[in-house]
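Need HTH lysR-type domain-containing protein's 3D structure for a figure. Predict it.
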Amino acid sequence: MLDLRQFEALRAVARTHSTAAAARQLGWSQPTVTHHLRGLARATGAPVVRSSSAGTALTPAGALWLPHAEAILDRADRAQAEVASALRDTRRSCRLGVFPTAAARLLPAVVAAATDAGVRIEVTEAENESLWAGFDALRLDAVITYETEPRGRPGGDRLFAEHFGILVARSHPLADRDQVSIAELRDESWIVGRDPDDAIDSMLHDFTRRAGYLPVEAQYSDDYRVVAAYVAAGIGIAFVPELALPVSSDDCRFVALADRVPARMVSLHTSPHLPEEIRAVLREAATRAPDVPAA
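Structure prediction for HTH lysR-type domain-containing protein:
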């Protein structure tokens, strides 16, 4: 079996023309140099060095090995340096995943705080399922996710509870209300998602069904920015989580629901290898970000 030390011994002999001098150069004993040269010879099926009164020289087989040995040793040195550098960078970087509706509210504060702390953040925006897949596959160091029911994921820090409500145009008659019930919205038109299995739309249908009606669907979009634009234009209202409200919008208002609606628990989960100082920066910045719901 080939060994990097065999190549080191061969290269040192080629440079010094002596097993004794090669041993001194490598900081090994002379028998150790000889041992590795013999190992390379066995793997080759031919001697790789020849000793004489003039010193030690490479055989034709050794000469054939030399450029390969030098290339392999050089690549090994570069690989070791690259891995060490990557590990140093990893200790001061974080691959963070976040679900889209939280991104606009949380990321500016999180990235700014991390940058001030000397931590580089690499962001991935994706839905919950993709975030968990990336986290479990170690492609993400930390994820900000939500759940309507606790799942017992270990190592998570609860950031805040996000409630659901109704997004209405500023000019809508309900815009000045603090609360509204689902039953009062029987005659409204709704902006809903395109996916018939969307969890939030399924909640809406459950609530309206209990109130004795099905929502009239006016338009469809899975992008909350588009949903907000439809709402602002007076095309309909929308059932949304708090974080879906545009960061700066004078055209829409979030009205709380009087009905008993489960909140989404927004949490930060981090990999065990992520330093505690980085985890603390993420946690503190996310909970102190402007306009996020109270914990």
